[in-house]
């Protein structure tokens, strides 16, 4: 097979040695070298404009990221060709670690103690047990499902919202978002960005979260309405917010979010694709195409993810 690597963010030098080892009979090309259009599989993540202009033999578009809105939103992506998401075990593990760090930072009041230290103040906040807290998850997919189990193992109560009804052991699963938010102390967004989910964390929804709670957004910046978040922090309704993703990335130096005392910022690092664990999953899908089988984790264009 001829495999095209097309990304403005992922670096072929990190991927090619691992890909070549996993797929020794296949040939790798890095965009803009498209082997005169003779390409069977495109590996993409923030693909350059025009990537798909002349790939008539394409059999699979394999994302190197878990989020695929860049592919779905590009009208130049050929619609007849299957698009597969990457489910990378290393990325799922990394997201779990990041989210647990944020949840514990809020739950154990470390965001407060950092400020107290700044002010040379010796003061104790009330202690809560994990079982006193409910963590609400927007999205119970590959990431949300794994994180729900990790939070349950730590004795947090977990509520989760998904598009279709779900059953996860120990998790209060619902398709009623308002009901889920009203019982949540901390809310974690792990949704794909679609027309239905854009702006979902707005004033009304944020105010349903219980007082002194936090919002953790590790999905996409477009899910969260920033002026509504700032109002909820400034009024004291929310205790803190953890933001890893932003509508404009990098976050502009002039953004007021940088210096807001109620916000912890990370530069879209909640979970990075880990080529060492991702390549096996990509190779598995390519082997499926070689055998004439349907690839795994196909994108549902109608649902938008
Ligand atoms: N910050 C980072 O570093 C980073 C890294 C990786 C991924 N991400 C983000 O995380 C997102 C989630 O990844 P994933 O692999 O967990 O996705 P996934 O497996 O597709 O799961 C998405 C979940 O969201 C639910 N959902 C989607 N649309 C909905 C709607 N309109 N109403 C209610 N629920 C809805 C789905 O419901 P159903 O279960 O009913 O389908 C599913 O439970 C990605 O799209 C990406 O944007 C961020």
Annotation keywords:
alpha/beta; seven-stranded parallel sheet; Rossmann fold; 2 domains; 9 helices; five-stranded parallel sheet; binds NADP nicotinamide-adenine-dinucleotide phosphate; 305 residues
**Shape designation:** elongated
Structural class: alpha/beta
Whole-number count of domains: 2
The total of beta strands comes to 12
Word description of this protein:
It is a single chain. The chain folds into 2 domains: 2-88 and 273-290, Rossmann fold (3-Layer(aba) Sandwich), CATH 3.40.50.720; 89-265, Rossmann fold. The protein has a 7-stranded parallel beta sheet with strand order 8-7-6-9-10-11-12. Strands 2-1-3-4-5 form a 5-stranded parallel beta sheet, covered by helices on one side. With 305 residues, the chain is of the alpha/beta class. Helix 5 links the parallel strand 6 and strand 7 (157-161). 30% of the residues lie in helices and 17% in strands. Helix 1 (12-22) crosses helix 9 (275-290) and helix 3 crosses helix 5 (142-153). It has helices spanning 12-22, 69-72, 89-107, 110-118, 142-153, 177-182, 203-208, 226-234, 275-290, and strands spanning 2-7, 27-30, 41-45, 60-63, 83-84, 134-138, 157-161, 171-174, 186-189, 213-217, 238-243, 263-265. NADP nicotinamide-adenine-dinucleotide phosphate (NAP) binds at residues 66-67, 91, 95, 139-144, 161-164, 166, 190-194, 196-197, 218-220, 244-245, 268, 270-271, 305.
